[in-house]
Amino acid sequence: MEQKKNKKLGPVRKGAVVPFLIITIIIVGFNIFLLDKVVKNSIEFFGTKVNGAEVNVGSVVSSFKDLSVEVSNVQFTDAKNPDLNLFAIEKIRFQMMWDALLRAKFVIDESSIEGILTGSKRKSAGKVLSKEEKVAADKEAGPALTSEVLSNAKKEFEGNIFGDISALLSGTSSKDLAKNIEGELKSKKYYEELERTIDQKEKELKSMLDALPKEKEISQYDDRIKAIDWKGMKNIKNAPKILKEANELQKEITGAIKKYDEAYNRVKDEVKFVESSIKKAESLVNEDVAALESKMSIPSLDATSIARILFGAELVSKLEQYNVYFEKAKEYMPPKKEKTVAVVKNPRGKGRDYQFGTPNSYPLFWLKKANISSDNEQTKLKGSLLNLTTDQNVVKAPTTFTLDGDLKNKEISNMKAKIIVDHRENIKDSMSLSIGSMPVRDRSFSKSEGVSFGMKEASLSSMIDAKIEGDVVALSMNNKFSRINYDVEAKNKNVKEILQNVANDTKVVTVDALAKGQIDKLNFKISTNLADAIKNSLGKQLQAKINEAKAKLRSGVDEKLAGNKKQINDKIASLKSKYEGEITKNKNKLSGLTDSLKKNEKSNPLKNPLDSLKKKFKF
Prior knowledge:
- The protein is an alpha+beta fold.
- Among the domains are: 26-139 and 364-411, no CATH class; 167-297 and 563-617, no CATH class.
- It has 14 helices and 13 strands.
- It has a 13-stranded mixed β-sheet with strand order 1-2-3-4-5-6-7-8-9-10-11-12-13.
């Protein structure tokens, strides 16, 4: 057979070049026809999930040569007003790293965000995610502050202090006193239950008393003592018989005394139980009075309570607002998982280690730095975003966001914001925001049929710090309102005069608030000079009205419970007189019989006859 000759290879190796050209064409084709669309769709999809409302991208232009991407006109829908954008970004530029992309990682060394607009009009209303879609988007995040907890916190601060004051001064708050007290009182229900308990205990005590030795039996003991021939003790022959009879009688009387002691202690315990139950009933009376005061809107004039009503809901709203962003950070940058127990391996022999690079040196996504700048008719801003990543433990740094400047279209000046998200070990998130000046309009403190009080216009400077570390939350807020134009209206002349005095005395309003504690046990501290001014302006006149209303309410509750209290007191008196008295009387009689026995023993003419006889006859 003729041997096949090997074909000489030319300078171009088709076996290698052709696959390379195919791969290159695919990559270039993907870049030309698909990459821009993939980037655009990714920004819109993930942006919508984070924002909770539709995010739109105008255009994406990418370059395969240097892996640079330019994104234009990114619009974030305002979920509260879908016709407007929460904010929009004119240009986003970034360049990916080939080294990371070849490992299927997306790493951006530096990026720029330029031209930020706030509150701009949209061509069409943006879509807002439904509750079901938001739950689906957030299903992997464990909320640090549940809506239920914050909703309950808001209820703590409910109230209409000025409406309550107006009603009190006009006398309308006490008109429905009888009607309010007619409702079921916890204390009344407790008193009725206590009466039934005492009746049951009295039956048990009666049965116990019936089982005790009666007066007839006690008289028989006395007759038996008298029947003993004590003079016969002089005859040593009769002494054992007499002594035995006396000892048996002594045992019977001692046993009867023991039964009476037990009965006496039982009665004492029951009386003590009833008396302690009365104390508990009184505490329930105080609770009923406090509940009725709240129901009848009797205001409290301490500055702390007034401050909580005026600004408590605002503090909780800030917690709700910042918690949304912290939870998003937790979802997309999850904290480090708990370490698994390492498997102990057998020791290896000595050898030499060779390093061939660091595996997984890049996280799936890592934006090392983004420079933020904007100077247009709406905003003048400068800031940065550092180490935005899917795995902070790989990059060994927290995510940091800073932004300084002015929002000219919203009249917000000298704004400084800083956010740090650190999920490398335990969660340590913080946010600080300071605003030099921003306008406040139509800030109402009370809006009711009889009273309207608030700020038509004011200038606000604010400093807010929020932190979450583990399951502990802390939010501090320091606000200062100046250049205030108050809204003061009231049907009652006295109320209007009081509110006008408050407005005149508080040209500047300061608010210092703090919420701190575990997620489900937040403690709130709120103070404001506006509360002090209200308290001082109301003065003794309103305090007297409050005291009068509280006294009427207490008197009404006491009157409602008078019958129950009398029943209980009568039953206690009955227990003491009927059972304690009778038991004590009969016990004293039995003790007297014991004394009589001892007296007769001592009157024996023989010296210590009982002792000598006991030894002789071994009793």
